[in-house]
Amino acid sequence: MSRSFTITALMLVVLAAGIWCLGCGSGSDDEIVARVGRTNITKSYLMQKMAELPPFAQQQFAGPEGTIAFLHRLVDEEVLYQAALKAGHDQDPEVVRALEAVKRRAVIQAFYAEGVEATTVVPDENVEAYYEEHGEQFQRRGRVKFRHILVPTRAAADAARSRVLGGEDFASVAREVSTDSATKSAGGLMASVTQGDGAPGAGMDVAFIERIREWKAGEVTDPLRSERGWHVVRIEEKVDDGLKPLEEVREQIVKSLLPEKTREHYEEILADLKESYGVRVNEDVFRAKPRSEEELFTLAQETEDPLTRLNYYSELVFNYPDGEHAAEAQFMIGFIHAEELSNYEAARNAFTRMKTLYPDSALVPSADWMLEHMGDENPPFEEGDVISQ
User: Fold this and answer.
1) Is 41 in contact with 75 (CB distance < 8 Å)?
2) In the predicted model, is pLDDT for residue 380 greater than 50?
3) What is the pLDDT of residues 290-339, one digit of tens each?
4) Dihedral pair phi/psi, residue 237, rounded to 5°
5) Which among 156, 170, 207, 245 has most CB atoms closer than 10 A?
6) Arithmetic mean of pLDDT, 151-171
7) How confident is the model at residue 378 (pLDDT cuts 50, 70, 90)?
């Protein structure tokens, strides 16, 4: 086992056992269920730690035997903790650094939770603006919730309706006379039906539901006929389709805006803290400093690899376009492309660029010669030709 793994394991033991020991040796009236050296583990503390377990772990330690098993786990941790302390591992530099890192993260997380998340506010104007701009997200279909009495004849429907209008309880009449077995025991109560849907189980198609929607909440309809018979309906609740009210969706909007608002709030707090602590960052330490023209020219002349040489000459022209060696470097870019890489198109572009940028250079005749004879297997060199590096 590696030393780093051992240190990590011991650190976790120290953390776990250290936390558990907070409940050890509490009130004398509390029953002691285990003792490790001079440290007592009480029954109330054991129950407290079990209650803090996640649900799946609570199931694992359910019942008397589970409680005893969990107690032994606490004891094992306390034994290891005391042994680790005796061996001096709490002073081990790696353990100290690891614990400090855990503490640092915990402190930062606590500051973020209380100083950023808890203080983030989504302004009402942001909520209202989002509501107006994203209205399509908050559209709802109309729905209707109702009770009904189903009877076989129009006369029976008229009689039931008269009883209800006369003051009898609708649900009681439904339980007495309705023939719809699915809703009879519930006093005729139907689940909400969304606009555009029907209730096939009750014999109500979409058109039937639309007729019901003509009445207001609390009203009792005229007898209505369906394929199953005659219905008397009382509207319990009716909601029209359209945009949900802002207050109904406010919490939903706040939740959707909160992450971005928290990020903005965090950036503001961080900027203020940096200013208050006088933060200064020297990024130049990590950025490559430009090489001098002479350095680049020397590197290019001393390098054998054509691609590397090409890069040096290109860097020189880019950084020092008016430098002493700029014209020669531009010429050499074309020369390398033509003579060493056989990339004639790139060479032509380089020589043409050289003539454009440096028309007074002594290398212009050499550039013309290269453009004229580029690609020749045995170019006709003559006395006076100027080809130099």
Assistant:
1) yes
2) no
3) 899 999 999 999 999 999 999 999 999 999 999 999 999 999 999 999 99
4) -155, 140
5) 170
6) 96
7) low
CA 44 to chain centre: 40
Q: How many residues does the chain have?
A: 389
Dihedral sign for Cα atoms in the order 208, 213, 215, 218: positive
**Cα separation of 180 and 264, whole Å?**
59
CA distance 375 to 371: 9
HSE of 40 in the Cβ direction (CA atoms, 13 Å)? 12
Position 10 pLDDT exceeds 70? no
The span from the CA of 169 to the CA of 43, in Å, is 57
Which run of H or E residues covers position 231?
A: strand 229-239
Cα dihedral 98/102/105/107 (nearest 10):
-130
What domains sit in the chain, N to C, each tagged with a CATH number?
Answer: 3-112 (no CATH), 142-240 (3.10.50.40), 293-373 (1.25.40.10)
